[in-house]
Amino acid sequence: MARAGYDPREMANMFKTIQAEGGSSGPEWLSSHPDPGNRYNSIVKEASMLRIEGNANTGQFQSVKARLGGMSPAYTAEQIAKGQARSGTSSTSSTSSSRNTGRIERRSVTVEPPSSQFRTHSPASFLRVSVPANWRDLPSSDSQTYAPDSGYVETEGGQSAFTHGVQIGVAQGGSGNLQRDTDQLVQTFARSNPELASAGRARSETIGGRTGITTPLSNISDVTGEREYVSVSTAQLRDGSLLYIIGVAPQVEAGTYEQVFRKVRQSVRITE
Known about the structure:
This protein has helices at about 10-20, 40-45, 60-70, 75-85, 180-190, 255-265; strands at about 120-125, 125-130, 135-140, 145-150, 150-155, 160, 165-170, 195-200, 205, 210-220, 225-235, 240-250, 270. The chain contains six helices and 13 strands. The chain has two domains: about 10-25 and about 35-75, no CATH class; about 80-270, Mog1/PsbP, alpha/beta/alpha sandwich (Protein Transport Mog1p, Chain A, 3-Layer(aba) Sandwich). Strands 3, 4, 7, 8, 9, 10, 11 and 12 form an eight-stranded antiparallel beta sheet that branches. A three-stranded antiparallel beta sheet has the order 1-2-13. It has a two-stranded antiparallel ribbon with strand order 5-6. It is of the alpha+beta class. Strand 9 and strand 10 (about 210-220) form a beta hairpin.
């Protein structure tokens, strides 16, 4: 940046603006620019040792800036989430399979029972987790989903939903209090899932060798229109962010799948 004529300190201000506008409590699975906690000060310190060469504020720059300024505002994360039928908040979110309505037609879903054999995956360099061998690995921009065939729906528009399986992600910007951060995460999910409700008491549970919390919830599936069981399990990472594991299954199959979800949680290995 300095060699191109830009003040590298503005990069620190950019991250500050992103944090102020985007908030710090929403899920940010494997963000390409995670904040270690001292990012702003580190960038400013590094920038002070550089010499700005030339002037990037050319006529071409002003032309591009004016062109971008005339474009429509980009969608916010909340607008994108709503447009994708709550994708990335809960595994029960609907997907669009109709070009006219933007909604999928509710359907009956039949999936193969979870395999008794488990396969280990590494969704992140610091994380290992094992899931039934007949569940597919379905990465997305802000989370990792493992679901059986027929339990996952994807459309031409790139929207997705699943009725059986687990979703793993990281919510950045925690307060350091596991219970408070878990409550806030659940509230975030509930804002885009109005049918989400408590289905019992939260309980303490060891996840990846750390103190964790599992919260049982209930929701209405946009795919089937039937009630489904949702378990949200959380544990804190060293930087204060929150690892979450969401298990989803139809309510009538909750007993079977909760055993599977428990095995998944017990398999978690965190090496940060």
